[in-house]
Specification:
This protein is α/β, with parallel strands linked by helices. The protein has 8 helices and 11 strands. The longest helix is centred in the middle third of the chain and has 15 residues, at 86-100. The protein binds adenosine-5'-diphosphate (ADP) and magnesium ion.
Length: 211
């Protein structure tokens, strides 16, 4: 759908409501990179601890423990950093990225961090600085967010990134089906419109015939 993969470097927003497949797609991408010798770093905040995510993901065929042991895919939890101020939180994220020097980074999800900063009115500045850092660092950074279509149009996140992918799970005529849509992808042509996807033990795949 995006002519051979994410542009390098780039920052991609992967948006969708809970259960639409954001974590699956993001981590599937880290393992795809690892199979080509890249390093991937998965950073999570409070909503799901790292061990829970890893336990759920290890049932997928793309999950490869060897890559984890070799350090080609690393899972880290920055829940502790959330109690600190945004500046310190940014420093912790930056340090982790510099320490691992990954080609692919996933921040999954950004939503609890933003919610926490909201009451202090510090979300904008944090998002701005985090995204600016990720874009300047030189990697493919995928940031997931619990958002609906309507939220995306007005979000700073969508405005700041090079690409936006939306996963959805609408009910239409009493049937729920899963979709993936590429809303924006700078520097490459892409298939437009919602595409039906399947989630199986192999992860997420766009349905055959619709590619
Ligand atoms: N092995 C599997 N086969 C089919 N569907 C699966 C499988 N594992 C997970 N899923 C589906 O993937 C969804 C979870 O995706 P997840 O990546 O956690 O979503 P999100 O991060 O957007 O909340 C579940 O709701 C379930 O429908
Ligand atoms: Mg998730």
């Amino acid at each position: 759908m995006i002519m051979g993969g994410f542009p390098f470097p780039s920052a991609i927003l992967l948006a969708g409501e809970p259960g639409t497949g954001k974590t699956t797609l993001a981590v599937q991408s880290l393992f795809a990179g690892a199979s080509r010798g890249e390093r991937g770093l998965y950073i999570t905040a409070i909503s799901e601890p790292q061990w829970l995510v890893q336990k759920f993901l290890s049932s997928f065929n793309f999950y490869n423990q060897e890559y984890v042991e070799r350090g080609n895919v690393t899972f880290i939890d920055i829940g502790q950093a959330l109690m600190k101020n945004p500046g310190e939180m940014l420093n912790i994220i930056k340090k982790k990225i510099e320490q691992h020097s990954p080609q692919r980074v996933v921040v999954d999800p950004i939503t609890p961090i933003c919610d926490l900063l909201q009451w202090r009115g510090e979300t904008r500045e944090f998002i701005h600085e985090l995204f600016a850092f990720l874009k300047a660092y030189g990697c493919v950074a995928t940031i997931t967010a619990e958002m609906s279509y309507d939220d995306i149009a007005h979000s700073l996140e969508a405005y700041m990134v090079d690409g936006v992918i939306v996963l959805s799970y609408p009910e239409e005529e009493k049937v729920r089906r899963k979709f993936l849509e590429v809303l924006k992808m700078r520097g490459t042509k892409h298939t437009t419109g919602r595409q039906l996807i399947d989630i199986t033990d192999d992860g997420i795949a766009v349905q055959a015939g619709l590619r």
